Amino acid sequence: MFPADRPRRLRRTPALRRLVAQTSLEPRHLVLPMFVADGIEAPREISSMPGVVQHSLDSLRSAAAEAIAAGVGGVMLFGVPKPEDKDATGSAASDPDGVLNRGLRALRSELGDDAVVMADTCLDEFTDHGHCGVLDSHGAVDNDATLTRYVDMALAQADSGADLLGTSGMMDGQVGAIRSALDAAGQTDAGIIAYAAKYASAFYGPFREAVGSSLQGDRRTYQQDSANRREAQLETDLDVAEGADIVMVKPAMSYLDILREVADRSPVPVAAYQISGEYSMIVAAANNGWIDRDAAALESLVCIKRAGADVILTYFAVDIARTLSGTSS
Q1: CB of 107 within 8 A of CB of 151?
Q2: Which pLDDT value is given to residue 217?
Q3: CA dihedral sign of residues 36, 38, 44, 50
């Protein structure tokens, strides 16, 4: 007997598959994370993230303009201070002349309103101990003292031209504290992209090199446990109630179930961050000839989009934007 139902009919040609595709990924959905380092005159390679660099201010401008010309929707900027500028409270993070705020001003000047400029609102790059907050006398991260520093940092970033502030430290109440401070300062247009469900992950390793992290130990006392699911819903609900404009799940690829559940309940747009380790695994396998780099990257991003992401932060952003628009070199 032959089958009466033949779903394969709609898979027969690329045109048919395009016609009935249930998930659409466009360049505008992609955000490029970028690193700007103090004291360098030319881009500096990140060995664990082939193809990604720490930028000088000049190369940051040109690379960001190139990304936006490719159709990428925005950029997320991380600052890499000189080692000697780190201290216990991450004071360089809120310094208007600190590397991150100078980078934000450079991006705003270069891009105008043609792109969304996002800033990482976290202290880990700037502290000499590498944690995302201020430590108490016992060496634990002091949640409420850290909120004060986040407020200072957020105000400096908004003044420097950031459209969206990325609250990535996973401190309780961080979104509410920053939203209140922004509104009180008249920065009512500055938005918050809240890292609502950020998990303590082994896949962050290459990022530590990218930002020159000073961390010893881990961040498991404030980032979420990978075994927990319902906790992500609580964190998301709290961030939305406190005023988040966008909520984010991080990492993305190993947490697609979390992303789907957040997307199903969130009243605001949902972002997902394909993090450094997820990027580096694909690139390393491709460099060994085991997989097709571009095909694997595109598939991974389509799957993140299918799981519910409205916005995807990825180091593949420029290459995939060109692939999607048919302008790959």
Answers
A1: no
A2: 73
A3: negative
Read off the tokens for 122: 């976290």
In 165-292, which residue ranges form alpha helices assigned H by DSSP? Answer: 174-184, 205-210, 230-242, 256-265, 276-287
For residue 251, cis peptide bond before it (omega within 30 degrees of 0): yes
Cβ atoms of residues 100 and 154 within 8 Å: no
CA distances from residue 2 to 5, 6, 63 in whole angstroms, order as listed: 9, 10, 56
Residue 329's pLDDT is 57
Cα(282)–Cα(233) distance, rounded to whole angstroms? 29
Task: Report d(CA 229, CA 225) in Å as an integer.
Answer: 9
* Residue whose C-alpha is closest to residue 175's, from 160, 200, 197, 159: 197
Q: Which of 82, 86, 250, 305 is catalytic?
A: 250
Does the model's pTM come out above 0.70?
yes
Whole-number pLDDT of residue 266: 97
- CA-closest candidate to residue 170, choices 216, 202, 218, 102: 218
Q: The tokens of 202 are what?
A: 């082994």
Distance from C-alpha of 232 to C-alpha of 39, rounded to nearest angstrom: 39
Q: In the annotation, is 86 catalytic? A: no
How far is Cα 70 from Cα 25, in angstroms, rounded to an integer?
A: 14
- The answer to whether 198 is a known catalytic residue is yes
Q: Measure the CA–CA gap between 199 and 196, rounded to whole angstroms.
A: 9
Name the stretches of the chain with pLDDT < 70.
Answer: 328-329
Cβ neighbour number for residue 17 with a 10 Å cutoff: 11
Pair of tokens at residue 260: 């789907």
**Annotated catalytic residue within 82, 86, 198, 305:** 198
Give me the half-sphere count of Cα atoms (radius 13 Å) on the Cβ side of residue 284: 10
Q: In the prediction, which pLDDT does 173 show?
A: 97
CA separation for the pair 135, 127 (Å, rounded): 10
